[in-house]
Amino acid sequence: MALSETDERIAHVRTAFAALYSGEPVLWAQAPGRVDLMGSHTDYNEGYVLTMPIDRTTWIAARPRDDRQVAVHSLNIEGGETFSLDGDIQRSTAVPWTDYVRGVAKVLQDEGYALRGFDGLVHSTVPFGSGLSSSAALEVATATLFNELSGLGLDPVRLAVLCQRAENTFVGVNCGILDQYTSAAGRAGHVLLLDCRHLAHTVAPIHPDIRIVICDTRYKRALTGSEYPQRRAQCEAGAATLAPRYPGVRTLRDVTLEQLDAAREALDETVYRRSRFIVQENQRVLDLAAALPEKGAAALAALTAESFAGARDLYEIVVPQMEAMLTAIHGAPGVLGARQAGAGFGGCLVAFVERDCVGDFGAHVCAAYREATGIESAVYAVEAAPGAGLLAVE
Ligand code: GLA
Q1: pLDDT tens, 273-300?
Q2: pLDDT score recorded for residue 144
Q3: How far apart are CA 135 and CA 128, in angstroms?
Q4: Per-residue confidence band for 356, with pLDDT thresholds at 50, 70 and 90
Q5: Which string of DSSP letters, residue by residue, matches 204-271?
Q6: Among 80, 109, 146, 239, which is most exposed with the fewest C-beta within 10 angstroms?
Q7: Does the beta carbon of 343 sit less than 6 angstroms from any atom of ligand 1?
Q8: Domains of the chain, each with CATH number or no CATH
Q9: Closest residue by CA, ligand 1 atom 9
């Protein structure tokens, strides 16, 4: 019988683990990447996001150690390191990707959890730097492993919050909760309507006619750049100006379009545009969540188009490669709608495509995008995957 892709992946990791550490891993943690279907930059405004864990995952195959050391290597990036759980855990200068592992260990220990070390081997199918949350997947896989090995009893939401803290305070990226929450709390076959203020979600199935297709511009963005924190600061400035005028306003989540427009004179022009995007995008999340279970083709087309236009004109997170990708998508068969995914500035677009058209859709998009930009894109359908947990490996 032919081996499944998962079996082959397990065999590959197992062989590499034996070569590195001798012997067998005894525990396999996995955490998925994510794609946001609607709700750009709404998370740090305490708003809503329609989000989906994807069947691109980060695994850590591990074996516990009793000497308070953590050894990590990766099959995706050269190099690995060992660090101690005793003393102050520092960032790595030589192998920076281990900071996601170190950061989670540090935050958990700072919270008072007693951790057990391990030998770990990371293998990921989440593309790096594409806006599909490869960093969060590594953090959440790490926390899942510690949770099991050390019997911490963390529930998915608490685990996500601690992973976000690791990213904010240790890695130094001021991200919201979206990525870690989706990876930790996702449910197979479902999209999550996430409420970022209350750290709660509801789930809805995806309409059987619709497939979610990732269209990666292969134009890399860097989240640690100045643009992301700048957008965040502009949103906070908007909320700070509006709060004294309107009782009950704490963040842009609380603001209506009417309130925003009535206060326009008081706002810096850029802050006004950023705030307008967030207020509208938040409503689009709720509207899409209502339309998606019924397929709602007209709503899907309109909401995704408005989201992309707002990201381009108001939030200014769209680069030319993303525009070229949208044009390629709109000329393709079976498209119901498409918009930016992740933080913007490159990375992926997410397309909603008629189930029967996915093959032709992909071929058209790749060819048209190549013709326009000279770049070889990656276009692939994804399924809604389960949230983080242990893999059952025989
Ligand atoms: C990145 C951040 C998230 C979120 C998105 C934009 O993925 O990590 O917290 O802000 O960008 O929606």
Answers
A1: 999 999 999 999 999 999 998 989 999 9
A2: 98
A3: 8
A4: very high
A5: EEPPTTEEEEEEE------TTSSHHHHHHHHHHHHHHHHTTTSTT--SGGG--HHHHHHTGGGS-HHH
A6: 109
A7: yes
A8: 5-205+385-390 (3.30.230.10), 210-382 (3.30.70.890)
A9: 176
